[in-house]
Task: structure prediction
Amino acid sequence: MLAKRIIPCLDIKDGSTVKGVNFLGLRNVGDPVELGQKYAAEGADELVYLDISATYEGRKTFADLVTKIAEGIDIPFTVGGGISTVEDAGKLLLAGADKVTVNSAAVRRPELIDEIANRYGSQFVVVAIDAKTIDGRWVVTTHGGRQLSDRELFSWAKEAQERGAGEILFTSMDHDGTKNGYPCETYARLFDLLSIPVVASGGAGTVDHIAQVLSEGKADAALAASIFHYGEIPIPVLKRELDKKGINVRL
Result:
């Protein structure tokens, strides 16, 4: 059985790592290169960097930052934010990223998934899905959770896979930053529906939360930010505790 992955997420705004609750109230939590090196040294399996304020100029600056990150760490990392063309993805891959994540642009124009997968391979394409529950239905959102789309979580995840996505990164907007745990039933349903890995994001507050989403939720990986950025659960401690609970992780 493949080991479950632990993935710190670093949201980048104007070159700094920031964190908020439900994508709001952002606070600066450190230098993205230094934090990435720290997490890699502590045993993170991968990293995710998201440019949450991507504009054309911001994306150019972000590509320079990706080069610095690639020079400084030796574990795989994914980058995203404002990627709307194959060329955008290509620049970040050329700068040293192992994978790119697409979100709002793919909802707007799903062919983008096909185009990146056809050019660079499915293993490079992570489709990030931000969704919230409305009247019992998981509605896909865009623009950092600020706009509702007409898409539904499960059908969109299935379509993304069929178009060539190599991985799904699902964030529950209802749980993001709250540290109240993940919607495990939803992740389990996604796992059963898809044949590609599912990464859980949004809601980690305790070791038990992460253990639950990796076991009951069947997620292939758990992504978290606050608990790592604020030193609440160091990665080595998390991995040892997960191992004790019988969850297969790389120690």
User: Anything to note?
Assistant: The CA atoms of residues 208 and 242 lie 8 Å apart. The two ends are 15 Å apart (CA to CA). The mean pLDDT is 91.
